[in-house]
Amino acid sequence: MNFKKEINRRNTNSIKWDLMAVEGKPEGTIPMWVADMDFESPKEVKKALKRVISHNVYGYSFAPDSYYNAVTGWFKRRYDFEFAKEQIVTTPGVVTAVGVAVRAFTEPGDAVLIQRPVYYPFSMMIEQNGRRIVNNPLINVEGRYVMDIEDFERKIAENNVKLFILCNPHNPVGRVWTKEELEPVANICEKYGVTVVSDEIHCDFVLDGKKHLPFVCVTENAKNFTVTCTAPSKTFNLAGLQTSNIVIFNRDLRQAFADEIERMSIGMLSPMGIAACTAAYEHGEKWLKGLKKTIEGNRDYMKAYIEEHIPELSMCDLEGTYLAWVDMSGLAMTNDELKEFMVKKVKIWVDDGDMFGPEGENFARFNLACPQTTVERACKQLEEAVLAKMR
Ligand SMILES: Cc1ncc(COP(=O)(O)O)c(C=O)c1O
Q1: pLDDT-derived band of residue 143, with 50, 70 and 90 as boundaries?
Q2: Are β-strands 139-141 and 226-230 bridged in parallel, bridged antiparallel, or unpaired?
Q3: Where are the domains of the chain?
Q4: Which of 176, 213, 245, 305 is deepest in the core (most CB within 10 A)?
Q5: Is 0.85 topped by the overall pTM?
């Protein structure tokens, strides 16, 4: 467990690191964009994968009971979220699951609601499958985003919304939705017959000792209309192993979802994914504790640094995820100028805010899942570029 070590990830086919050359990013650029971590996974994951590799046979595989016990045990222990093996459908990823849900629960032309600025593949899955985006924009209240619940209900009623894709914790704005916020959402969805896909991939990154509340546990009836997307991929840096667990209590929804998976034959996991997921959920708790401390430290460092040294910028409250959402509008640049400034002057590869919807213009998302020394370097580069530009 070493969250201080800077790991050389170059020449490993890492999209975060090795696409820098392909995309022509300047020498010395710090990659803080896509959401994977510059940390090694827990050593138990390595041990489990070594067992698979030493056998050196990688045939078609199925997930045994020990896999399902590890998954269900994790969520029961940590979040009082109880479900059975039979209520899990596996997919290669959460984005895949969102796409499958869009296809399974709506028809072409149907309205699907999202809350921008939000993780951009939601929009892609809706539009690329011929459905219609209805946006219920979040409201930025001095760096802490909230939902506009009146607009939420109005948009659902006016557009005959069939599906709502919730992001909890929310990427990129870093909110962890409270029971008080989620209850009316659940009640409105029940009232209008809206199915909810709750993307909870960041649930293990609820910070500051707080506890994640699965949407499905918010009201008595939420079980009937909720699809909960989980995965060990963010938590343990396993995204490349393509293993996700989608929990669906309602039998009809689960069948429709599973049928869609079957039509495309994408339900099978790899022997590596099975081994890694099992080991991570069985043994990764202590490791995760150390990781979260590091993320909190990075967040506090960056927030304080910006407040003290770069007052033109402002970092939103980061309650969950490891992604800092920074308001850059104080630099008084156009959105295009800001993008060029980040690439050519600051030399940090961020996710530009407008990827998450027009509401994200003049924002940037920084990935803080890296050693603190990287965050320190990034803050310095940011400060120097802003100084050269502004003062
Ligand atoms: C909210 C959210 N959902 C899903 C994903 C990706 O999930 P997967 O790699 O399992 O498709 C990410 C990755 O950044 C994410 O932030």
Answers
A1: very high
A2: unpaired
A3: 15-42+285-390, 56-282
A4: 245
A5: yes
